[in-house]
Design a protein that fits this description.
The complex is a heterodimer of chains A (96) and B (164). With 96 residues, chain A is mainly alpha-helical. In chain A, 67% of the residues lie in helices and 0% in strands. Chain B folds into two domains: 85 residues, Rna Polymerase Sigma Factor, Chain: A; 72 residues, Orthogonal Bundle (Arc Repressor Mutant, subunit A). The mean pLDDT of chain B is 85. Classes of the chains: A mainly alpha (96), B mainly alpha (164).
């Protein structure tokens, strides 16, 4: 048998034996971790909003509360961070 | 692939199943038969492929793209674990070192340098065109052809010297 013929013989087949399943399992784990990290970051970004929430006086309507919140710099920063996070999210984790 | 067909892990598993045998075979040859290391590298290759799905532009075959990732993973592992010298141009080839009564192709391959093993395997056993193999191994076409020619010469010597 010539060397080229010998070299051209296909590689010995490798049985899957759960290899593909393990890869997919690991992928799912990683995607789940990434998703949790994204939600964690979103929650962190919302934290200043919660801290900046004014104590709502009794009888104040929702529109007034929102208007008051919108004027706080912390709220604006948090919304900005949230929007940025949403815009920069990886393509495969677009779950919202 | 960049159109999102494999964006779901289940869909991606079809790609893994399709290519796992050839990829693991390629890595087994690169690692000189270290099956455990080859499988670790194969897993890393597929996970990296998943991360880089968006970067695959459809130029060349999926297989060549996977071999390119596998080759870079192998080089990293070889450097980290000092598996074999990679940067030396030619550290000397001593066919007499192959003191095996009957040398088969796999054994003979293990006496070649990694780029020669990779080039020969991609071009012959895996049937990639020279251009795709050169791209996968991140080397100029001329360099790939040199590795192929040098590897063939070494194999000829090894297999003739030790023919039964």
């Amino acid at each position: 048998m010539s060397l080229d013929t010998l070299l051209s013989q296909p590689l010995a087949p490798v049985r899957d034996d759960g290899f593909s399943a393990r890869i997919v399992l690991e992928l799912r784990r990683r995607e789940e971790r990434r998703r949790l990290a994204l939600w964690g970051a979103a929650a962190l970004a919302l934290l200043p909003v919660m801290l900046a929430l004014p104590l709502v006086p009794a009888g104040m309507d929702a529109a007034n509360v929102l208007a008051q919140m919108a004027r706080t710099p912390l709220f604006a920063s948090a919304v900005g961070a949230g929007v940025l996070l949403w815009a920069l999210r990886p393509a495969r984790t677009r779950f919202f | 692939m960049s159109d999102g067909r494999f964006a779901d892990p289940n869909a991606f598993s079809a790609l893994v199943r399709q290519h796992q045998s050839a990829l693991r075979g390629f890595l087994r040859r690169l690692t000189r038969g270290d099956h455990a290391l080859a499988d670790d590298l194969a897993q890393e290759t597929f996970l990296e492929a998943w991360r880089k799905l968006a970067q695959f532009r459809g130029q060349g075959s999926q297989a060549a793209w996977l071999y390119a990732i596998a080759w870079s993973r192998f080089l990293m592992a070889a450097r980290e674990r000092k598996l074999e010298p990679l940067d030396e141009e030619e550290e000397g080839f001593h066919p007499e070192a192959a003191s095996i009564a009957k040398l088969d192709l796999e054994k003979a391959m293990s006496f070649l340098r990694a780029p020669e093993r990779a080039a020969l395997t991609l071009c012959f056993a895996l049937g990639l065109p020279h251009e795709e193999a050169a791209t996968a191994l991140a080397m100029p076409l001329g360099t790939l052809k040199s590795h192929v020619a040098r590897g063939r010469e070494k194999l000829k010597t090894l297999l003739q010297d030790h023919a039964p």
